[in-house]
Amino acid sequence: MNTIEKQLSAAPRKGLYLGTIAAIVAALFLWSLTAVNFNQIEQSGLKIAKNIMYGLTHPDTELLFNVSKQSVLYLLLETMAIAFLGTVVGAVLAVPLAFLAASNIVPKPVSWITRLVLIVIRTVPALVYGLMLIRVTGPGAFAGVLTVGITSIGMLAKLYVDAIEELDTRVLESMTSVGCTTFEKIRFGIIPQLMSTFLSVIIYRFDMNMREASILGLVGAGGIGAPLIFAMRSYKWDQVGSILIGLVVLILIIEYFSTRVRGKLVKG
Description:
By secondary structure, the chain is mainly α. It is built from twelve helices and no strands.
């Protein structure tokens, strides 16, 4: 018992540290409450909130289940196509950039310059890319595909680089010792090590791109975002509810299957 008491007495006292952190958090919380102003909530605002909740809980079933080009099903299919094609474009273009950014493959100056380019690509928001590309290609799904593709390059290339730099070089050294060509080393030494990781990353990015593709419609880059914002601006909350229901169901389905596929790829 004496030994335990000595260990407890020798342990660092964290009471002052935790108390200071708690006081800072409490002060920040109280300070943030000063931005809340209930006096600006008018009777009309409460009525609008009630209409929103009613529309969301009573969606437009005709818009949700018909098969016209203005239906939710068609718009969701277009959104998924934008996300899929954009992911493919980004996944392909990210491969050469990833090899150029890997310090164990190319000289360090080339690696640093390529990493800087990837940082710049990741810095620009997707909506900014969408607004610029719409000026080039015009509004529509093609601008959405290009936007998703460009925004995917930065993240995919970064994760590709991590996988490339973790390559087991002993395999390549052994293949070199037996006289394998460069093509054979890439085909049988590098690709088998990277394929499962690359596919897992691509599937994860596709899951993210589904959300981005739905937002890009707000700037006219195709998909379900444009009808969503138009319905909100015209206060058609039943249509907003049907669009959100379809979008949530589609994303849940994609996330379920993508999680299972990625789990199998990671486990081999």
